[in-house]
Amino acid sequence: MSAAAAMALAAATLVADGDGHYARRAEGAHGSVADPREADLAIAAYRQAVTADLGDLTALARLLRALNFRGAFCGAAVEQQKAIYDEGKRLGQAAVDRLDARAGKGRERVAALRAITGAADVYYWTAAHWGQWGLVRGTFAAARSGVAGRVRDLAQTVVDVDPALEEGGGYRVLGRLHDQAPHLPLITGWVSHAKAVEYLRKSYELGPRNPVTWFFLGEALVNGPHDLDEARRFLTKCAETPPRADYLVESVYYAELARARLASLR
């Protein structure tokens, strides 16, 4: 067996181990707060996989996904969240920079990225880490430092390369960004509430079972000149649908947010 094949095999074995732990990430959860044990074990396995094969984008994407879960759903304090998202955006952006250099620009870029296994996932989870990093530092400060534009460009790449990824994840990120980013002249003047709803509807078409999309779309409809009855329907769907077994903590978390948003509309 060649050295490259041995590295790939080692990485694949570690990724499989990490996947097993990640699938059990809801074990021991208290409502919308997960016990971090399984997430931490998944992160450790994925880190080893990335070390074993630095070119394995699947391993890196899984590491970024697990880090995102650890920061968002395990009760991490703000300073711990900052450290987690710092690591995620650093690792993800370094990979994105390499991918951008490899794929080039122009019409061939998207085709080149589609041919690279794991590329779209890396762009998606890098966008997630930049977004979360911005949230823990404040939306206005993040927008002024260019985070919103970076998230927009990463998410647009996901839409271009694999729009169905993560149940319409690229459109979901774009929609939430347009709904939540502050409109600052010369910085985020491109923010559009109409686009927020447009993108979130596209995400819903691609992933109609995703509770995050239900909440984001419901909230976007509340925030603009739209039918409040439709907004309530999406928020109620998020609040009352039994949590998905494969998305347990996340479902419960967004159901709680949806119930609170519905209460504010009474």
Chart the SSEs and their pairings.
Layout (H helix, E strand, L loop, with lengths): L2 H21 L12 H17 L4 H17 L4 H26 L4 H7 L4 H19 L1 H6 L2 H15 L3 H16 L12 H14 L4 H12 L5 H13 L7 H17 L2
Helix pairs in contact: 1-2, 1-3, 2-3, 3-4, 3-6, 4-5, 4-6, 6-8, 6-9, 8-9, 9-10, 9-11, 10-11, 11-12, 11-13, 12-13
Word description of this protein:
This protein has helices spanning 3-23, 36-52, 57-73, 78-103, 108-114, 119-137, 139-144, 147-161, 165-180, 193-206, 211-222, 228-240, 248-264. It is an all-alpha fold and 266 residues long. The longest helix is centred in the middle third of the chain and has 26 residues, at 78-103. It is globular, with a radius of gyration of 19 Å.
Overall pLDDT: 93
What is the helix content?
over 70%
Strand coverage percent: under 5%
What gross morphology would you assign?
A: globular
| Intertermini distance | 66 Å
Structural classification: mainly alpha
Number of strands: 0
Radius of gyration: 19 Å
Instruction: Supply the number of helical segments.
Output: 13
What's the helix-strand series?
A: HHHHHHHHHHHHH
Low-confidence stretches: none
How is the main sheet built? none
